[in-house]
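Possible regression after last week's pipeline update?

I re-ran a chain I had predicted before the update to compare outputs. Posting the input and the new output here so someone can diff against the archived version. Not blocking, just want to make sure nothing changed silently.
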Amino acid sequence: MRGALLTCITLLIVFSVSGQTLRGIVVDGETQQPLYLVNVVDNANSQSTATDERGIYTLAAKNGDVISYSFIGYHTVQRLATTDSVLRVSLFPLSVNLQEYVLHPDYTPYQKDSAEMAMRYSTELNKKPVKVGFSSANGGGISGLIGGPVQRMSKSYKQNKKFKENFQKDQEQKYIDTRYTPELTGALTGFSGDSLAIFMNAYPMEYKFARTATDLELKMWIRQNYKDYLKPKKSRSAN
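New output (post-update):
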């Protein structure tokens, strides 16, 4: 009788321990926004899971187990499991070393370059068709008879218009390049060299998005494209 009782108690203890569940949430340490698809691993038994869109996860673990949290572009951290409460973990982004510039402290490299280019090509950028009007010179009369409609058909006007369009596109791309950088993209994807160039060419960034996106949205955009890039080609074409 006593042996059977001891066996029951032992089984209850085993089931109680094995049935413990760790619950938690993982957030960005800078923005406090939830992180999606963070890899959560119990080092004691190699059990693993991932966070959902809300940054929430559950994992079979015991109190005191060492839990690892890893995510592309972030420092990996370890915490002790506490199954009696929700464990909140903050992950901090990896620092990206960018090229150092020594410039006027009030301007970014992009702003400085844009200002210099605008000054260099100010004549071409400010060139406009001559408007028809009245002139008092040489006894008065109509000036600018070869007005807007005619000038817009001229070769020089078309060349100037094309130059302005190309100039605008060039400036927009330069701004995109200040945000969508090989250094940041490489840190978030692990790509380098030709593989990094192929990935960035396959997923160009729009100027409007580069202007309006927050740093977190920019990183999430790169990660989402990275996930899409890893899909089989047939799967990507179907989407």
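Follow-up from reviewer: compared with the archived run. Residues 4-18, 101-105, 141-146 have pLDDT under 50 and may be disordered. Marking as no regression found.
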